[in-house]
Predict the structure.
Amino acid sequence: MQLPVVVGVDGSEGSLRALDWAATEAARLGLPLRVIHASLWEHYEGLRPTFDTERPAEQILAEQILAEHLVASAQERARRLRSEVSTVADVQPEDPVTALVQESHEATLVVLGSRGRGRIAGMLLGSVSLALAGRSHCPVVVIPTPPPNTRPKPGRIVVGIGRRRRPVSSGPLRTRTGGIASR
Protein backbone atom coordinates (compact mmCIF):
# COMPACT_ATOMS: atom_id res chain seq x y z
CA MET A 1 0.00 0.00 0.00
CA GLN A 2 1.35 3.41 -0.97
CA LEU A 3 0.97 5.98 1.77
CA PRO A 4 -0.05 9.35 0.32
CA VAL A 5 1.47 12.77 0.58
CA VAL A 6 -1.08 14.68 2.69
CA VAL A 7 -1.53 18.42 2.36
CA GLY A 8 -3.62 20.66 4.60
CA VAL A 9 -5.46 23.48 2.85
CA ASP A 10 -7.44 26.43 4.15
CA GLY A 11 -7.63 28.59 1.02
CA SER A 12 -4.78 30.89 2.03
CA GLU A 13 -1.88 31.75 -0.26
CA GLY A 14 0.39 29.69 1.99
CA SER A 15 -1.78 26.61 1.74
CA LEU A 16 -1.92 26.92 -2.06
CA ARG A 17 1.89 27.06 -2.18
CA ALA A 18 1.94 23.96 0.04
CA LEU A 19 -0.56 22.26 -2.29
CA ASP A 20 1.61 22.96 -5.33
CA TRP A 21 4.73 21.69 -3.55
CA ALA A 22 2.91 18.58 -2.28
CA ALA A 23 1.56 17.73 -5.75
CA THR A 24 5.04 18.07 -7.24
CA GLU A 25 6.57 15.96 -4.47
CA ALA A 26 3.86 13.29 -4.85
CA ALA A 27 4.65 13.13 -8.58
CA ARG A 28 8.37 12.89 -7.90
CA LEU A 29 7.85 10.08 -5.40
CA GLY A 30 5.16 8.32 -7.45
CA LEU A 31 2.66 8.60 -4.58
CA PRO A 32 -1.00 9.62 -4.36
CA LEU A 33 -1.97 13.03 -2.96
CA ARG A 34 -4.57 13.54 -0.23
CA VAL A 35 -5.93 17.09 0.18
CA ILE A 36 -7.46 17.80 3.60
CA HIS A 37 -9.45 20.74 4.92
CA ALA A 38 -10.33 20.46 8.59
CA SER A 39 -13.15 22.45 10.12
CA LEU A 40 -14.65 22.29 13.58
CA TRP A 41 -18.07 23.49 12.41
CA GLU A 42 -18.88 20.16 10.81
CA HIS A 43 -17.84 18.47 14.07
CA TYR A 44 -20.12 20.57 16.23
CA GLU A 45 -22.97 21.17 13.82
CA GLY A 46 -22.99 17.93 11.84
CA LEU A 47 -23.23 17.75 8.10
CA ARG A 48 -26.76 19.13 8.11
CA PRO A 49 -27.70 22.42 9.67
CA THR A 50 -29.57 22.31 12.95
CA PHE A 51 -32.01 24.97 14.00
CA ASP A 52 -31.25 25.14 17.71
CA THR A 53 -27.98 26.99 17.28
CA GLU A 54 -27.01 30.61 17.65
CA ARG A 55 -25.74 30.65 14.06
CA PRO A 56 -28.41 30.78 11.37
CA ALA A 57 -28.86 27.57 9.36
CA GLU A 58 -28.06 29.50 6.17
CA GLN A 59 -24.65 30.48 7.57
CA ILE A 60 -23.86 26.89 8.59
CA LEU A 61 -24.87 25.59 5.16
CA ALA A 62 -22.83 28.32 3.44
CA GLU A 63 -19.75 27.37 5.49
CA GLN A 64 -20.18 23.70 4.57
CA ILE A 65 -20.58 24.54 0.89
CA LEU A 66 -17.51 26.78 1.08
CA ALA A 67 -15.44 23.97 2.67
CA GLU A 68 -16.52 21.49 -0.02
CA HIS A 69 -15.78 24.05 -2.75
CA LEU A 70 -12.38 24.78 -1.22
CA VAL A 71 -11.25 21.12 -1.32
CA ALA A 72 -12.73 20.55 -4.78
CA SER A 73 -10.87 23.62 -6.08
CA ALA A 74 -7.65 22.47 -4.43
CA GLN A 75 -8.07 19.00 -5.92
CA GLU A 76 -8.61 20.50 -9.38
CA ARG A 77 -5.56 22.76 -8.98
CA ALA A 78 -3.39 19.75 -8.07
CA ARG A 79 -4.75 17.78 -11.03
CA ARG A 80 -3.96 20.62 -13.41
CA LEU A 81 -0.45 20.97 -12.03
CA ARG A 82 0.32 17.23 -11.91
CA SER A 83 -2.26 15.24 -13.86
CA GLU A 84 -0.33 11.99 -13.33
CA VAL A 85 -0.90 12.11 -9.56
CA SER A 86 -3.95 10.35 -8.13
CA THR A 87 -5.59 13.04 -5.99
CA VAL A 88 -8.41 12.76 -3.47
CA ALA A 89 -9.84 15.48 -1.24
CA ASP A 90 -11.79 15.45 1.98
CA VAL A 91 -13.31 17.79 4.56
CA GLN A 92 -12.59 16.52 8.07
CA PRO A 93 -14.99 17.41 10.91
CA GLU A 94 -12.18 18.11 13.40
CA ASP A 95 -9.87 20.89 14.38
CA PRO A 96 -6.93 21.07 11.92
CA VAL A 97 -4.30 19.73 14.33
CA THR A 98 -6.36 16.70 15.38
CA ALA A 99 -7.29 15.89 11.79
CA LEU A 100 -3.74 16.21 10.43
CA VAL A 101 -2.18 14.24 13.29
CA GLN A 102 -4.69 11.48 12.55
CA GLU A 103 -3.85 11.66 8.84
CA SER A 104 -0.13 11.44 9.67
CA HIS A 105 -0.60 7.86 10.90
CA GLU A 106 -1.18 6.76 7.30
CA ALA A 107 0.92 9.28 5.36
CA THR A 108 4.38 9.38 3.86
CA LEU A 109 4.60 13.10 4.48
CA VAL A 110 2.33 15.94 5.65
CA VAL A 111 2.73 19.33 3.95
CA LEU A 112 1.48 22.68 5.28
CA GLY A 113 1.94 26.31 4.48
CA SER A 114 3.40 28.68 7.04
CA ARG A 115 1.52 31.74 8.06
CA GLY A 116 2.47 35.24 9.03
CA ARG A 117 2.74 38.74 7.63
CA GLY A 118 5.75 40.90 7.10
CA ARG A 119 9.40 40.00 7.22
CA ILE A 120 9.67 38.70 10.77
CA ALA A 121 6.25 37.13 11.24
CA GLY A 122 6.55 35.47 7.83
CA MET A 123 9.35 33.31 9.20
CA LEU A 124 7.33 32.05 12.15
CA LEU A 125 5.27 28.88 12.16
CA GLY A 126 1.54 29.14 12.55
CA SER A 127 -0.19 27.35 15.42
CA VAL A 128 -1.20 24.36 13.26
CA SER A 129 2.28 23.96 11.76
CA LEU A 130 3.91 24.18 15.16
CA ALA A 131 1.53 21.73 16.82
CA LEU A 132 1.74 19.25 13.94
CA ALA A 133 5.54 19.38 13.86
CA GLY A 134 5.55 18.19 17.47
CA ARG A 135 2.85 15.51 17.17
CA SER A 136 3.02 14.08 13.67
CA HIS A 137 3.75 10.39 13.09
CA CYS A 138 5.51 11.11 9.79
CA PRO A 139 7.77 13.86 8.42
CA VAL A 140 6.20 17.33 8.19
CA VAL A 141 7.17 19.90 5.55
CA VAL A 142 6.23 23.55 6.13
CA ILE A 143 6.38 25.65 2.97
CA PRO A 144 7.27 29.26 3.78
CA THR A 145 5.49 32.18 2.21
CA PRO A 146 8.00 34.73 0.96
CA PRO A 147 7.49 38.40 1.77
CA PRO A 148 5.53 40.34 -0.87
CA ASN A 149 7.34 41.39 -4.05
CA THR A 150 10.24 38.98 -3.59
CA ARG A 151 11.33 36.00 -5.60
CA PRO A 152 11.73 32.70 -3.77
CA LYS A 153 15.36 31.69 -3.37
CA PRO A 154 16.95 28.54 -1.98
CA GLY A 155 17.56 28.67 1.73
CA ARG A 156 18.26 26.47 4.68
CA ILE A 157 16.40 23.28 5.36
CA VAL A 158 15.72 22.72 9.04
CA VAL A 159 15.34 19.12 10.11
CA GLY A 160 14.07 17.96 13.48
CA ILE A 161 14.96 14.45 14.56
CA GLY A 162 13.08 12.52 17.22
CA ARG A 163 12.29 8.97 18.22
CA ARG A 164 10.10 7.08 15.79
CA ARG A 165 7.42 4.60 16.77
CA ARG A 166 7.34 3.01 13.34
CA PRO A 167 10.06 2.54 10.74
CA VAL A 168 10.27 4.81 7.73
CA SER A 169 12.24 4.38 4.56
CA SER A 170 15.92 4.81 5.17
CA GLY A 171 16.56 6.78 1.99
CA PRO A 172 17.32 10.48 2.00
CA LEU A 173 14.57 13.02 1.49
CA ARG A 174 15.62 15.19 -1.45
CA THR A 175 14.28 18.67 -2.04
CA ARG A 176 13.58 20.48 -5.28
CA THR A 177 16.45 22.83 -4.55
CA GLY A 178 18.84 19.90 -4.44
CA GLY A 179 19.25 19.74 -0.68
CA ILE A 180 19.12 16.46 1.18
CA ALA A 181 17.63 15.95 4.62
CA SER A 182 17.86 12.71 6.57
CA ARG A 183 14.69 11.12 7.85
